[in-house]
Structure formats: C-alpha cells, structure tokens
Design brief:
Blueprint (H helix, E strand, L loop, with lengths): L1 H13 L1 H29 L25 H36 L2 H16 L2 H12 L3 H28 L2 H8 L4 H9 L4 H25 L10 H10 L6 H28 L27 E14 L2 E14 L3 E5 L6 H8 L8 E3 L2 E4 L2 E2 L5 H11 E4 L3 H4 L6 H12 L4 H14 L5 H4 L9 H12 L6 E5 L7 H18 L2 E6 L2 H7 L2 E6 L2 E7 L10 H8 L40 H5 L5 E4 L2 E3 L10 H4 L9
Parallel strand pairs: 3-9, 3-10, 7-8, 8-9
Antiparallel strand pairs: 1-2, 1-4, 1-5, 5-6, 10-11, 11-13, 12-13
Length: about 625
C-alpha cells in the first residue's frame, strides 16, 4: 500500500502542474527556513546614507526610512508570514471539522442548533468575522492567529457537514451501522477517509486565504507588531513612499501572490493523490465478446465500418456494458436511421464512433474505421484533424452544445481556425457563409449574436452549419428534432437531405420516432438493450419489419388515420438494465411471441433476405390475436 501511494505521488509530481506546484512550494519553504539564517543581519542593518532610495544594484527594490534593504526584509519576513498562515489554517480546519461532525454525534435537537449556527456564521463576510474576532482576542500576533483561524472555521464546518451527509447514506456506511460500529468510529473510519479530497483542496486554499488575511490585518496595524514584521507590515511601510519608490510596496505584494499560488496549486496536486481513495475500485479486465457476425466487406465508397462495437463503464462489482456487439457500415451519401427506446445505446454508439467516450469508459471493437482510418488505434493528434473536418456531430440540445458566453459566429469560426489554418477574418467570413447555407436569415447580423438570441430551430440550423464548416463526409444527428414543432422539424430534415444530396454526405439520424426515420432514411437500425435487433431497408409507410420489437415501435406511432377514441398503444414492461441483462433474448419478457428458447438463448443478427437482418428466433411469427389488442409500451426516448 505504501509503495502504491508513493507511486501515485511520483506520478502526480511528474505532471506539469504537480511539478511546478511542488517546485514553487519548495522555494517558498526554503526561503522561509533559510531567510532569517542567511539574511537577517542584512535586513536589519541600518544605513543612514541610503534612506528612502529606489531600486539599484546594491538594493534591488530600494531601502526604507531607516536605510534597510527592503528585498532582504521581504525574504526574512517569509518565515513569520507563512508560519502564522499555516497555524491559522490548522486552527480553522480542526475547529471546522469538529463543528461539522458534531451534529452527527450529538442528539438531533442540539445537532440542528449547531448546524444553524454554522449556517449563520457562513452567511457573514469573512473579513467581517476576522475583524470581529480580532476585537475579541486583541491586537497582536496571537490575537490575529486566533481571529483568522476561527473566521475560517465556519466554511470548513459547512463543507464537512455537506460532504458527511453525502457519504452517510451510502451502502457501506449503512452496513457499518448495521454491524454496530459506533458513531465516532464510523466518522473516522468510514466518513472522513471518503471526503479527504475536497477538504485537502479547501485546506490549502484556506492557507492562501489566511496568508492574505494576515497581511491585511498587519497592514491595518492590528496584526504583527514591531519589532517583528511580516509582509503586511512591509506593505504598510512601503505605502508611505509608494509615489517615490513603488517597488517598496510591490515586493511584499508579489511575495503574498507567489506564496498563495503555491498553496493553491499544490492543493490540486494533493487532491489528485488523496482523491484516489474515493474512486471506484478498478474492476477486473473486461472480457471482450467475440462477434459471430460475418465481417463487413468495405467498398470504395464506404465511410464508416463498425464491427463488434462495445462500450463499457466500470462499477464496483464489475463492468456494465450498455452497447453490446454493434456492427454496421455506412456508405457515402447513404442515410441510416438508428431508433430505439431510452437506454437502448443509440447515443452511446454515436459518441463511440466520434471518439467522445471519455475515461473511465471503455470502447472496444474488432474494427472501427472512419474514412479508412482506425478510430481506436490512431493517436489523437493524428485523428483530430480528420474528425474535426470530415465528421460532424449535431447534438440533441444545441443550447447546451453552444458556449453561452461566446457569439455564434466566433464558435463556428473556431473550427476553421483550428483545423483549416484560416485567419480569424477568413474563418468568420466562412462562418457567415455556412449560416447562409443552412437558411439562417441576416446571417451577417446573426453571426454577432449569442446562442440565447436564437430560437430552438435556428440553433439546430447553426449546429448543422458548424458541422459544415469543414467538408463532412458523415453527419451524426442525435435527436436533432426533439422538442421542435413539426414545421421546424420538417425544415431541418429537408436541410439534412439537401446537404446529403449536394455534398454526397452520409448521415446517421438517431431518433426515437421510427416513422420520421422511415420517411427520411434508406436503412433503419433498430436497437434494443445495447444491440441491433433489426437492420432493414426503409420503404416509407410500407416498411415491413420482422422483429416483434420493431413492429411494436411502429404500433406506437400516430398518424391522421389513428382513431382518436382508441387507447394509445404502448409496449408493456421496461427494457432491462445494462448490468442485469437476461440470459436469452433481452426482449423476451416483453415479447408476445416469446418461447422458452427465447428466454435461454440469445439470437444472433442473421440475414433473412438481402439487405435485411434480424436477431429473432421467430422473425416470421405473427402476433397472437389475444395479444395484438394489448397496448404496446411507450418507450420512446
């Protein structure tokens, strides 16, 4: 365990942030330790011939009113400034931890009273609390330490209360309570180790805050008193001659900033190491499921090849696999629809193809190629230009996909600046041109507006325009028409069809509406429980599905011929959870024609006629009359 913790520290210190933070903090502590030893005499030497001088070769930041070297005085003051800040931080953290944990141990009325008192204290400005406690504890170093320490305590107490409450309801804490573990032991053995990361970050930030507070109190004359001096007293002394020698006040100010930055950056590094305790246990390596589907033969016009794609996420008990063995190909100019209920894996498939699944998620595939380039094995630096210019992703909610603080035109132009090497002016001109291409009126004016000034349909158009900033060979549209009225929905679908016709761009349209997809795309991939259960050609209203799930989805769609007095069709039951997948067909428990074979054996995706594949043991089985009247589930995403 000690070796592993040491390896984690080494790894953290090798990062640019960790190395810089450690070096900066080491420098501050080295000066704090060695400063009074090496430069105390030089800092105390009075030279009446050099009173109030400015920066020179002999005195780098000048001298004070007694001719003492200010630079050496700043170095010597480092020890007292840092030491007092650390002591105040320790007092604040210790007091805050006690106040934060006491409500858990005390009887409920007393605990609520204490929590309310902490909330009231947190509501007061920090500086006001510091001055209040400074009046109580008196002027001087000891009073300032106590004042700052107790002023920091409420925020640590509030943080401890919040974090403890978030951990107290977890299963391992409940199990410890059932086992009879006492409250005190429960806090120190089960709660505190799991809230160490944010407490460590806030403790180091608190040290930086204490440093600044001490400097403020000493600057006001109620902190460190003569003959001692810290950076705050030096700031006060330098202020008197700031118009003659600004460096006299600048030097201690820079010292405060550097020391505060060192504490904060090192806190981030410490959190990266301590936070390992709160991470999920690393599960055993995930066994990769071998596909029995015949590999797809890539043609010259093939844009995307996907074979046995799996997406998995770690859990304490192992891996959950929401996308299981997905295989398909997309040719240039082809429009493919992906449909299914919520949780079927449609969006995850699109994200995996775009290489947008981040750790700790795991993406594996026997073959995943875009434009002839392996997506999973190609280094990100080489793959980024290809994906940035040849693959466009249209997300479901463009309001969250656009940066609300930046203008639409600049966000579109960023694509060309990054991937095409255009200047800012050229990229902005291209952005305006792309906005015109997606039928946004007054594109020049609209490019200067922010996302909130666009309607929902216009934001979707702008998102498509962002995809067209490059020369996309594939557009993945993830629920682009959700929450839009039918008129805007029709306009967006026409725009995608026009883009496809003009540029020979392939389109993957992810949707829960099989009726829309059947009228827009050439092929339909029906997904259920992370798998493709049917791959069939679309023929408008004459679509002929063979899988019971696809037929059920069609039965839930509404049209002008739907009887308004009839009950809405729904699919009974719910899809299985990804980590609780049944042994046989995942749809068996909801299927009206399921047999014992369906519940014990999982069917493979099999070709039944050319261009039509289905994963079902009874693809030709008719739905029994007794069940055909049963309401079919509303599972649209």
């Amino acid at each position: 365990m000690a070796k592993r913790r040491g390896a984690q520290w080494l790894a953290a210190l090798r990062t640019p942030l960790g190395g810089f933070a450690a070096a900066l903090l080491l420098l501050v502590f080295a000066v704090a330790v060695l400063g009074p030893i090496l430069w105390k005499d030089a800092a105390s030497a009075v030279d009446t011939n050099a009173i109030g001088q400015g920066p020179s070769a002999q005195h780098w930041v000048g001298t004070d009113e007694l001719g003492r070297d200010i630079f050496y005085r700043v170095l010597v003051a480092t020890r007292l400034s840092v030491l007092l800040a650390l002591v105040a931080m320790v007092i604040g953290v210790a007091t805050g931890l006690v106040l934060g944990m006491l409500p858990t141990v005390l009887p409920r009325p007393l605990g609520r009273l204490l929590a309310s008192a902490v909330n009231i204290a947190v509501a007061f400005p920090g500086l006001l609390l510091v001055l209040f406690f400074a009046v109580i504890f008196g002027v001087g170093t000891r009073g300032a330490v106590m004042a700052i320490g107790f002023a920091l305590a409420p925020q640590f107490a509030r943080l401890t209360q919040t974090l403890s409450a978030s951990v107290a309801g977890r299963d391992f804490v409940l199990a410890a309570r059932v086992a009879g573990v006492g409250r005190i032991r429960l806090l120190f053995r089960h709660v505190l180790p799991n809230i160490g990361e944010p407490l460590a970050i806030n403790a180091t930030i608190g040290a930086g805050g204490a440093l600044l507070a001490f400097s403020g109190l000493s600057f006001l004359g109620i902190g460190v008193q003569a003959p001692d001096y810290d950076w705050g007293r030096l700031l006060n002394e330098g202020l008197n001659g700031i118009y003659v020698n600004p460096a006299a006040a600048l030097a201690p100010g820079v010292a405060v900033v550097v020391a505060g930055l060192a504490f904060n950056l090192f806190g981030e590094t410490v959190a990266g190491v301590i936070g390992v305790r709160t991470r999920l246990p690393r599960p055993a390596p995930r066994p990769v499921r071998k596909s029995t589907v015949e590999p797809a033969v890539a043609k010259d016009d093939t844009v995307l090849v996907v074979e046995n794609l799996e997406v998995a996420f770690p859990q304490p008990s192992g891996w959950t696999v929401p996308v299981r063995g997905v295989s398909f190909t997309v040719r240039a100019g082809e429009a493919i629809g992906v449909v299914g209920e919520s949780g079927s894996g449609k969006s995850l498939t699109g994200l995996a193809v775009s290489r947008l699944i981040e750790a700790p998620g795991s993406v594996t595939a026997d073959r995943l190629e875009f434009a002839g380039t392996p997506v999973l094995t190609t280094p990100e630096r080489e793959l980024r230009p290809l994906l940035g210019t040849s693959l466009a992703m249209v997300f479901q909610d463009p309001m969250t996909s656009f940066n609300p603080a930046r203008r639409i035109g600049k966000q579109l132009a960023e694509v060309s600046e990054q991937h095409q090497g255009l200047s800012r002016t050229q990229a902005l001109a291209r952005a305006v041109d792309r906005l015109r291409a997606v039928r946004i009126p007054a594109a020049q004016r609209r490019a200067r507006q922010y996302p909130h000034e666009f309607s929902g349909g216009m934001r979707q158009r702008a998102m498509i325009g962002m995809g067209l900033m490059g020369d996309p060979r594939l557009i993945i549209a993830d629920e682009p028409t959700t929450a839009l009225d039918v008129t805007v929905q029709r306009q967006l679908l026409r725009l995608l069809a026009q883009t496809r016709a003009e540029r020979d761009t392939a389109i993957i349209l992810i949707s829960h509406d099989i009726a829309v997809v059947s009228q827009t795309c050439e092929r339909i991939l029906v997904m259920y429980a992370g798998r493709i259960v049917e791959d069939l050609p679309a023929a408008g209203p004459q679509i002929r599905p063979q899988h019971p799930y696809t037929r059920a989805l069609l039965a839930t769609t509404l049209d002008l011929d739907t009887d308004p007095d009839a009950p809405l069709a729904v699919i009974p039951g719910r899809p299985p959870e990804p980590h609780r997948m049944p042994a046989g067909c995942a749809f068996a428990n909801r299927c009206p024609v399921a047999t014992d074979q369906c519940r014990t054996e999982d069917p493979e995706l099999t070709v039944i006629v050319p261009e039509h594949r289905v994963a079902c043991w009874h693809p030709d089985g008719a739905m029994p009359k007794a069940v055909s009247a049963v309401v079919v589930s509303g599972g649209a995403e």
